[in-house]
Design brief:
Blueprint: H1 2-51, H2 55-68, H3 81-88, H4 92-104, E1 108-111, E2 115-118, E3 124-125, H5 132-138, E4 143-154, H6 157-162, E5 173-183, E6 186-195, H7 197-203, H8 213-220, E7 227-236, H9 239-245, E8 252-262, E9 265-275, E10 279-282, E11 295-298
Antiparallel strand pairs: 1-2, 3-11, 4-5, 5-6, 6-9, 7-8, 8-9, 10-11
Helix pairs in contact: 2-4, 3-4
């Protein structure tokens, strides 16, 4: 009798357990369905918002997405206006307005008599403190560096005369990292980067040919880089810079002097020499602020 009662209790418990499992499955299925419906509605709303935009904007949006995903490579000949007119079944005016937007944004370049080409460009964000490797990678290109020198140097009068900013370290020795930054294996920047000896010595332990210094300092050494002050001026390449950048001596260059800080401590003084045949500054001004695409543009 007791055995039968135990069996009945066991069956009842099993029934309750199965009912709970079934209820859980039903709730789970309903949740997934509702989630999918929500995702579909969000997607439909996005499509509807895009559909509400002018036709040339929608074409520019689609072409921009393809450019961002690498559908065309830097230097590629872009489809002609006629090809785009046939593809989208629109007028030449609509195509020209879409292409004009992409040219203004720096994605494309019109070359009279030759056609429209994908620009080999790099826009350096003036609002954000970033390094060369970060900027180049964000554009889908391959950064690298060739290390010329990595050593402790004395801050003597000759060096101070060349780089007055070094006096702000208020020390007799600093760590120098001299290197050539390359984009897709093309030399574009000649860098002289000075650090406090203790930090520079730690940085030098890492592979600087494949990793940016700023990412090493923050991610590996745990030092937060808060802000930087920089000035940019025109210059002429000396023999050292010309050899490093593979340009003629006295060729025009852009020289950027930067002082980088962690809180109030000076961490880096850098002198970066950019090839002027590859770099130019494009700054779009408004009455209220500076547009997000203001920055340094690497020419095709």
């Amino acid at each position: 009798m007791r055995t039968l009662k135990k069996i009945q209790i066991g069956i009842k418990w099993l029934q309750n357990f199965l009912e709970i499992c079934v209820l859980y499955i039903i709730i789970k299925v309903k949740f997934v369905i509702l989630q999918k419906i929500g995702e579909r509605e969000t997607m439909q709303n996005s499509i509807q918002n895009l559909d509400a935009m002018p036709l040339h904007y929608r074409i520019a949006y689609e072409l921009r997405n393809k450019l961002q995903k690498g559908y065309w490579k830097p230097g590629d000949l872009f489809p002609t206006d006629k090809q785009l007119m046939e593809q989208y079944n629109v007028s030449s005016t609509t195509v020209r307005r879409a292409i004009y937007e992409l040219v203004q944004e720096g994605w494309l370049e019109r070359k009279p008599g030759k056609g429209t080409f994908v620009r080999n460009q790099m826009v350096e964000n003036l609002r954000k403190l970033t390094g060369f490797f970060e900027e180049i990678q964000s554009k889908g290109m391959v950064p690298s560096a060739e290390i010329i020198k990595s050593e402790i140097v004395t801050v003597d009068n000759n060096l101070l005369q060349e780089i007055p900013l070094l006096q702000d370290f208020n020390v007799s020795k600093v760590y120098l990292i001299k290197k050539i930054h390359k984009m897709n294996n093309t030399p574009v920047v000649y860098v002289k980067s000075f650090w406090p000896v203790d930090i520079g010595t730690e940085i030098a332990k890492y592979d600087l040919t494949k990793q940016g210094v700023y990412s090493i300092v923050q991610d590996e050494l745990g030092i937060l880089l808060r802000e930087a002050s920089q000035t940019i001026s025109a210059g002429l390449a000396d023999k050292e810079e010309a050899e490093a950048l593979n340009i003629a001596e006295k060729a025009p260059i852009l020289v950027m002097n930067r002082a980088t800080y962690s809180n109030e401590r000076l961490l880096e003084v850098a002198v970066n020499s950019y090839r002027a045949d590859l770099y130019s500054y494009k700054i779009i001004l408004s009455r209220n602020d500076i547009k997000k695409n203001a920055g340094m543009v690497l020419n095709a």
